[in-house]
Structures are given as C-alpha cells and as structure tokens.
Amino acid sequence: MVSLIIFLPLAGAVLTMLARSESAIRWSALLVTSATFLLSLGLYIQFDPAVSTQAVPQLSQISDLWFPDSMDIKYFVGIDGLNLLLIMLTTLFGPIVVLSSWTYIGKNHKPYYTLLLVLQTGVTGVFAAFDVFLFYIFFEITLIPMYFIIGIWGGENRVYAAVKFVIYTLVGSLLMLVALIFLGYAAGDAINGGVFTTDWYKLVAFNMPLGTQNWLFLLFALAFAIKVPLFPLHTWLPDAHVQAPTGGSVVLAGVLLKMGTYGLVRFCLPLFPNAAQDYAMLFAVLAVIGIVYGALVSRAQTDAKKLVAYSSVSHLGFVVLGIFAFNVEAMQGAMIQMINHGISTGALFLIVGMLYERRHTREMSDFGGIAKSVPVLTFFMVLSVLASAGLPGLNGFVGEFLILIGSFSSTLLASPWLVVIATTGVILAAVYLLYMVYAMFWGTLNRDENRDMPDLNRRELGLLIPMAVLMVVMGLAPSPFLAKSEPAVKQLLETIETKRLAAEEMAGAISAADAPPSAVNRD
Amino acid sequence: MDSVSLIHVILFLPLLGAAINGLLGLFLPSWRDREGLIGLIGTAMVALPFLAFVVLFLGYDGTAVVTRLFTWMAAGDLTVDFAYRIDELSLLMGLVVTGVGSLIHVYSIGYMHGDDGFWRFFAYLNLFIFMMLNLILGDNLVVLFLGWEGVGLCSYLLIGFWYKNLANSAAANKAFIMNRIGDFAYLVAMFILFREVGSLDVSSLIAGGESMDPTMLSVAVFLLFMGATGKSAQIPLFTWLPDAMAGPTPVSALIHAATMVTSGLYLLARLSPLVLLAPGVMTLIAIVGATTALVAATIAITQNDIKKVLAYSTVSQLGYMFVATGVGAFYVAIFHVMTHAFFKGCLFLGSGSVIHGMHHVEHELEHDGHGHKLDPQDMRTMGGLKQFMPATRMTFLISTLAIAGIPLLSGFFSKDEILFKAFEAASFGFPAAWFVWGVGVATALLTAIYMIRAYVLTFEGAPRWPHADRLHPHESPASMTVPLWVLAGLSVVGGFLGIPAIIAHGDLNWIHHWLAGEHGPVAERVFDGHIALALEWALVALGSGIAVVGVILGWRWYTRQGLSFDDALQARFGGLWRLFQGKYFVDEAYEKAVVRPVIGGARYVFAPFDKYIVDGLVNGVAFLTRALSFMLKYLQTGLVPSYAAGIVFGVVLIVWLMLF
C-alpha cells in the first residue's frame, strides 16, 4: 500500500503524457492525486501508534532484488510515527497543487503536470524510505522536476533561481552521499558481517565512534540545513519561491522544505547522537537567528510573495529549535509544526498566487483596500495570516507553543535566553504579517483595476476551504495527530539517549583520561 | 439543566452566533441586509449565556465546578485540556461580561443601523464574547491565553472595523502589536511556570507556588504583570488604547472600557495566591498603577475629543485597579472592574449617542453645502445638547458623578476602598504605598474635574456648531437609550455590593465575602493591625470631600467660562499643558526609539545584508567557480603537441618526486 501511494503519481505521469487534450491532462492529474490522497487516508486509519516500531515500520514493503547481495541496499519503505503525517501532507497537497495550477499555467500543460506527478512520487518516497540509500535517491529525484517547474514556468528571473536551487541543494546532498557511503561501510564492517548496509534500523543499531560521528553528522546536517533552509544557507529560498509558479511555491513551502527537517530528525539525530547533542547549541542558535532575522527581512519586503517566503525562514527556525531541544514536548512541537507550516504557508502562497492571477503583480503597493472588492478572499487571507502568526485556536500556535515550552525546559539548551529571543518571533510575526494585510487589504480602493477584481471562484474556494478547516481543526484538536507521533518520538529520544551513553562509554573505555569533551550539561 | 451543560451552553452560543452571522454574511450576500435577524441572533447569543450565568449564580453552593471538554494538546509531560471553571470569581466576571455585553449588543442594533458591515460587526462582537468567556472560565493558563489573544484579535478586527480609512487600520495594528508584546511576556511566564511546577493548571500552580524558587516566581509574576500592562493599557504599553477609539463606539464601551481591558486585573486576581508571594513585584504593580492613573488623568483634562477623554479616563481608572492589586486587595480591583464596567460603559454609550446626534448635524451641514466641516466627536463644537438629548444627558450626568466618586454612587465605594487599602498598606509596613495613596488622592480630584469638564462642554451652555439655530441633533432611539438607563441605574446602586468596613465591621461587604471569603478563590494581603475607626471615617470624608470639591470647581469653571477656561489654563501652565496635550510625547518617543529602528533596521540593514552579504557570498562562490573553469578551459586546447608537452612535464615531475 505504501508503494502504491508512492508510485501511483508516477503512473499518473504516464497517463498525463499520453493524454491528448489540455483538459484530459488536468483531469487525469487531478484524479490520480485525489485517488492517492484517498488511499493515504487508509494509512492514517491503519496506522497504530501503540505498536512498537523497534524492528520494522508498519505497512512496510521490502524488496532486496534491487542490488546484488554483496551490498545490503534494499527497496525498503514503510510508515512510522515520524513520517505518517508528512506523507499525508504530501498526498493532500497533490490535488491542491494541481487545482492551484488549473488556470495559472498557461503553456506546456503536459510536461508541467507530468513533472508535478513525478515530483510527488519523489517526495513521498523521501518520507517513506527506510533505507538511507533509497532515501538519497528519492531526495535527488525531487530536484529534477522542481528544476524544470521553476525554470520553465517561473517568473522573469526563473533560470537563475532554478540553477541556484539545484546547485545549492546538490552541493549539500553530494557531500551527504560521501558520508553515506562511509557510514554504510563502517556499519557493514561492524555489525553486518562486512556487507555494506544502508538499512535504517541496522544503522540505528550501530554505534558510531565519537570522532567519526562529528564529521558525518556535519555532512548530513549540511545537506538538510540547506534544504530547511537554516540561516545563513537560506538565500536560494526567496529566489526559488518568487520565481516559481504558484503550484511550485506551494509544494516547495508545503512539503519540500520538510525534507530537510525530517532528515534531521530521521537521520542526523539517531545515527550520530553524540555529535548531534554536541552541536545542538550551534543549531539552536542558528535557528533562533533565523527566526528573528527571517522575520525582520520579511518586514522589509515589498513583494508579497517574498514576504511570505522569508516568513518560512522564520517559521522553520522554530522547527529546528524544537528538534535540537531533545525533549518530547519540543520534538512533538517540531513534528506538528512541520505540518502546520505546510498548511498555513501553503495557503498564503495560494492566495498570493490568486491575486497574481488577477493582477499580474505581487507588489504590495499595487494593491490597497481590496477587502472591499474581494471580501471572501480577504477572509481566507486574514485567517491564514493569523494561523501563520500563531494565534491560539489556529494551527500555528500549537507547534510554536510546544516547541518553545519544550525548549525552555530543555537541559541541553542551557540558556533560557535563547528561547526568550525565539519568542520575540511571535511579536515580529504579527508585525510583518499584519503589515501585509494592512498594505494590501485595508484602506480605500484607489485603483480601477483593483475595483473590478472578481472574488474567489468555486475552484479557488474548493482549494481554500479545506485549508481553512485544517487550520481550525489542527488548532483546536491537534491531539489525535500528536498521538500518532508521540510514541515514535519518545522511542527516538530514548534510542538517542541509550546510544549516546553507549558511545561515550566506549570512548571512555578506550581512553579514560582523554574523554571527549561534551557541551552537554546533565544533572 | 445541570451546571456542566450550562457551561457548555454559555461557551457554545456566542461561537455559534459568530459563525452564523459571519459565515452567512460572508457567503450569502442577501443575509447582510437582514439587520433585524442579525441583531436578534447576535443579541440572543449573549443574553442567553447571561441568563445561564444568573441560574448558575443563584444555584451556586460554594464549590467550584470544573468541566473538561477534551484535550487540546498533549506532549510529554504537558497536557492542556479545554477545561473550564465556575467559581465565585468567574461567575462574577461572567455576569458582568455577558450582562453589560447584552446591553451593548442591544445598543449596537440602533447604533450600527444602516452600516454595510452590520453583519460583520455582530459576528465580531459575538466572537469577542466567546473569547472573553474563554479568558474568564479557562481553568489553565493556556486556555486563558486562547481567550487572551482571542479578545486581542477581536479588538484588532473591531478597531479596524471601518477599514476604508487606513488610519483606523493603523490603530488596529498598533493595538495588536502592543498587545503581542504583552503576550510575549505572558508566554515566557508560562514557560517558566511549566518548567518549575510541571503544569499550567491554575490549581496546580497555586499549590506549587510555595515550593517554587522565589526568584523564578517573582520573574514569572513580573512577566504576567507585563502581559497585563499590554492588555490593560498601563505604562509602558498604554498608548494603543486611545488610538483604539477609532473603532465604533459600542466597541469602545464593551472592549476598551468594560471587559477586555480588565483582563489583566482578572489574570492577577485569578493567580492572586502566587502574586502575593512576590511582594517586590506587587510594589512595582502599585507604583505603575498609580503613575498611570495620574499621567492618564492629566492627559484627559486637555483632550477635546469626547472619546479620547473617556479613553484616557479608562487608562487612569485601570491604574487605580492596579493600585488595588499592588497593595494586595485583589477583590477590590475586581470590585472596581465591575463598577467601572457600569459607569464607563454608560459614559461610552452616552458619548456614542452624542456622536450619533452630532452625525446627524454633520450630515445636514454637508447637505447644505456651505463647506462647513464638523467633527462629530469634538466637544468644542458641541454644547447645549441637554435640550435635544435629555435621556443621554441625564444618564451621562449620573455616570459622571459616579466616576467622580460622589458619595453613595458606585464609583465612590470602589475607589474609596482602593485608596483605603493603599493607606492601610502604607500604615503597616509598605512605605511605597504612601506615594501610591497620595497620587491616588490627587488623581481623584483630577478625575472629578475632567469628567465634569467633558459633561459641561457637551451638554451645558449654548450650542457651538454652525447654524445651531436651525440644525438640531435628535435623541437616539430606544434601543440605545434603554441600555443607557440600565447602566446608569447600575452605576447608582452597584457600589452597595461593597459597603466598607466602617459599617457593621465589613459584614455587609458582600463582594469581599464572595470573592475573598473563606472559600473564595481570591487571596488578599492581611495586615498586622487595624486602622482606627475614626481615621477610617476621616478618610471617607476626605474622599467624599475631594469628589465634591472637584465637581463644584469643574462645574464653576466650565459653566462660567466654557472653552476659554482651557485657554486660561494653557496660558497659566504653558509647558506643562503642552506636555499633557502632547500625551507626554510617549508615542513620539516610541516611534523614534523602537518603531523606526526596527523597521529601518529591517529595511536598511537586514535586507541589504541578506542581499549583498549572505547571498553575495553564495553568488561569489558561484562566480569564483565559473572564473576558475573559465581559466582551466584553456588547458583543453585540442592540440596534440601541447598535450604531449603536458605528459612529458608530468613524467618529469613524477620521476623527480620519486628520486628526491
């Protein structure tokens, strides 16, 4: 079933390639993505968080026909508490992105929808893979369709943005590949009878020596930090977002960025626990800088889409902070914040895209007072802005609150000041987001072209209503979703702790006097 | 119905009302014209909860009822439930909020008649009531915070209600952001309390307060107070409230006088056992409250916009409430919250009625086309309204006397109790309270003067608008005057709920027994001694005397000299007057010290830094790579001799390396 969810879009891509007419292309893309989403609901129902995930994920599928026996590389996918919701988010965005492109994409329909479907297969695969090598392949696969989507259907500066996006990400991921191969051999020698392995469970069971952990961690973390993006590696993001067509921006913000934060949780933490904790402070500081910095730069923008793009830098800073706090509250906050950021920022990009379709501009000064002409759109905009600004009762608050309250109690991030600074992000979010609403929606309508703007049509309503419902539901009743990931998160943190102690003991046994320095304050 | 289902009804109905009017109005344009139905639904969704509160109140047997709807969020050790508590404090606040709220809903039917956004207005008001009820009934700090930020949102939406005027929206943004600064402190306080106590339930916090590290506790209480200064408009976060008058007047009455702005006091009263453990912070609270009271009162004297006078008056009265909190008399703060809701609600609604009338005159003037501009809120072009609007005038006068503290009216009891408590604290070991008491007494005099000034300039004397001989404002409809009379009545009798201790040793002080009695949820500071009865009587006499003197002085000055008395004051006090009129230039200072550095920093430092340094480095690396490949490509000449030369050179190099 997991494989079906991964590859159904790919099959759909074949379908769109064969389709003759424009509408056949769009409808088949919509049909396939919707079917995939409905299927993924089955995952949600079947998944039982109470079942221990010690050995294999649930609903897993394994095939070792792929590589020769001399290498333990498998096609290995499955579901656990860490990836369930992200897969759901990906499949949910499938039909949403197709619908958001319905009239936006004016040329080359066939390749566009084909690439979108390929992209979905790639992203779902990234989240579902339990073999690190397989993960890597899916991770790279996502680059190609995104490259073309930005480069062909993007704005004026699209080629620059597309190339920057690909090269920046590739630099990180190729270094990760090096680390991955090293890791596979090391683990293979130690626990797999000398056979190179990238099986996630085997790698987690393997205790990497402390010294090696450091640079392997850094190589992996670099790839993910670029993807998140973590300050100061973020500058590809605004370019990519602004140039990408709406559908591309929505996928990018909604799910692609989460590949970075997910990678940190799935690989960096459990595979290199000691290094991860030693570098936790560094990452937390960068995350907090990102929160404040992203917010301030966001306020300075005149282009609405760029403003939203920088808000992602700020919001994902919260996620990274939560990940490196190493406690259940903050990590759970990070998990749910990944979903929530996808929903609220996705909605913001959708709305900015709708305005762009109407007026062919994203400059905030070209608008003003449009609440009068498009009241329904205004309602959804204000709702999304409030969700994004973390108003309690809407989804954004839940993640931020858990992250901050957890990080504050974190023994690892010894300084509460860090969290206090991060919390100012709550003020700043109101500053830049309300400014956008103020500049675009309030005031008098003084441009004729804004006066006759049509309000949302049925398709657009159909896009935004599910998002709005999710904002409210996940804001008021996030506990069923949190419950899906809590056991997995707890287990992950326990594994990390056990492994960390084991590795330290090992190092201690080798040389008691030359114990590795640890920045961690444990009392 | 049992009390648990009543709580559900109380919470659910206002939300339902907001959803009906909001969503139908948004998606079904024909709904927007049905003013009668919209108003009826909107009002019923507040009035019915009020009745439910009355039933709960009458049937209350002294034990708190806590109901849990469902778990909001849970992770690790943190569990936050949608849990609601009915006890003495939440019942009293609930009665005030839904009671005054219902009256203001009725009033709004008349006031907002004919406005395009009638449906929106009622949807926002109902949403506000829902959020306010979350704030009051919430049994943990997070649900309380949901209400806390929720009322802030509604305040934002309603201040910027007439969004076509960008100034209104700017005021709305200012209010929201300043509130968020306070909310930031509230959040950090929650982080500290959760780390120290392991729970955010009110009862666990109160139980865990004793064993907390005193410094951490003080920091947390300080942060909660900082949160309260945002919501309740105290120094340093008070400047949003006067700007908030951009909203429709019923909003000013409901949100910015009677209910939302008192949330800070409610929060501190709810956590009073914790606050009592931080005496240093309490002293600060009292001093900030007293200073705010005085500062705002001095500004109020110089304002000409009738709503601005009332706005600064609200800031000033809230300052009094913080004084009560700071000296440990939390129940007195709540007492003043209640009486203030009556008389200030009445004053604001009265000013709305006046504006309604003046609007008519403005309209007529425009119709005439003589080019006369009239600001319907400017008292300088009012005067003599008592002949045209008798009901408005009478209720305004009653509530003016109540806020001035004329004996036996409601404001007299609550304000006198605050001053007495400050005096008591000063006498028994808290010398800072002498300052607080002194400032409180001085402010009481100012209060009487500026309120009488507002009354006289509006209602007495001769009309000052153009063509006053033929253009007359009309009294407002009954939907507006009936709520005025009800509130005026409450302003008269409301004080008897808190009869001071000089009579029957305080046995008749109902509100004290109710809130701070043996089982009451509100703690209070207990002193080692008693003020002698004679001294107490003297203090009461002093308080009454000041009110009477203030009223008489103000009456004489402004009935005899009218506006020219302001000029006389200005001539007399020059610089000081300008300071007051300029609102102490706090807005300007914030603009220079905070707003411009942040926005300017974002625009001229951070954004260029991002573009040229961070991104510049990225592009620089890309450029270097390209430059390098550009040079290296010349090696690829395609000429066999140069490749051969390269090979020879390489061989020589290797041999050389091997040999040496």
Describe it.
The complex is a heterodimer of chains A (523) and B (660). Chain A has 523 residues and is mainly α. Helix content of chain A is 73%, strand content 3%. Chain A has helices at residues 2-18, 22-46, 84-101, 109-128, 132-141, 143-153, 158-191, 200-205, 210-227, 236-243, 246-271, 273-278, 280-299, 304-323, 328-359, 375-388, 395-409, 416-441, 448-451, 458-476, 479-510, and strands spanning 58-63, 71-72, 75-79, 196-197. In chain A, helix 6 runs antiparallel to helix 7, helix 7 (158-191) packs antiparallel against helix 9 and helix 15 (328-359) packs antiparallel against helix 17. The model of chain A is unreliable at 518-523 (pLDDT under 50). Chain B is mainly alpha-helical and 660 residues long. Chain B contains 24 helices and 2 strands. In chain B, strands 1-2 form a two-stranded antiparallel ribbon. In chain B, helix 8 (214-231) runs antiparallel to helix 11 (263-270) and helix 14 (306-326) packs antiparallel against helix 15. Chain B starts with a helix and ends with a helix. Classes of the chains: A mainly alpha (523), B mainly alpha (660). Chains A and B meet through helix 7, helix 13, helix 15, helix 16 and helix 17 of A and strand 1, helix 5, helix 6 and helix 23 of B.
List key phrases describing it.
heterodimer; A: 523 residues; mainly alpha; two-stranded antiparallel sheet; two-stranded parallel sheet; 4 strands; disordered C terminus; B: 660 residues; 2 strands
